[in-house]
Amino acid sequence: MERKLICIGCPLGCELTAQVEGGEVREVTGNTCPNGERYARKELTNPTRILTTTVRVRGGTLPVVSVKTAGDIPKGELLRCVETLRDLEVSAPVTLGQVIVPDILGTGVDLVATKSVEIA
Question: What's the CA angle centered on 107, arms 104 and 112, to 5 degrees?
Answer without folding.
Answer: 40
